[in-house]
Amino acid sequence: MIMRAVGVAVVLGLALTGLEAVAQPGPDDALLDVSRARLRAVDAGDKTAFAAGLDPAGLFADEDGIVRTGAALIEEVRPLPAGYAGTLEMREPQVRITGDFGVVTYAIAERLDLFGQRLDTRYHTTDVYQRTAGGWRLIASHTSVIPSELPRIPLPPGRAADYPGRYRLDDGPVAQVRLDGDRLVFEREGRPPQELVPTGVDRFAQAGRPRVERLFRRDAAGRVDALVDRRDNNDLVWTRLRDQEPR
Would 16 be classed as within a structural domain? Predict the structure, then answer.
């Protein structure tokens, strides 16, 4: 019985040791903790905490495409003004470590309250770290904004009938706009159909692609004569083929 008890104790001890080993934080956890701490520092407007472990000579690109050194970026950190309240939440982080370099890429959900109104913005950030004798050092970062999708609005009665037809991109491909029940669909040969989601007068979006907007252009008589494919505020014009214009 004594030996049996000793055996059980040994097994339990090994199991507990294994659990402790699993629970030990690894280098991935350390990098995540550093990036989370920097987000908290932005929330608090804490310049000192934000600067900890950040390379003053590093390069940091923000969502507007502006590139700053680490030293210049630190000077941008300050508490929110009166009437503002905001939080930044890290989501879906991924970590890769190769030698003395580590990359943390993650989504950020920002909630910003301005004088009783609320803005919800999504970002994606990638941080690049270098391992030094003093720990991980942030040497570069890039942040991009993920546009929110525009809300769907109802079309005025009869308006949907203005849009169906064939549209050509200069002397290139031809696309068909058609009604599928109460949905308006854009379909290009060899590609899956895309629902056009109404967001304004003659304005449509594509679900899942908030950077793309499609606008129907009208001539002086008020007839639809083109489909404008707007991508990041750059336009491609699909001209309506005359044989498809309404009589």
Answer: no
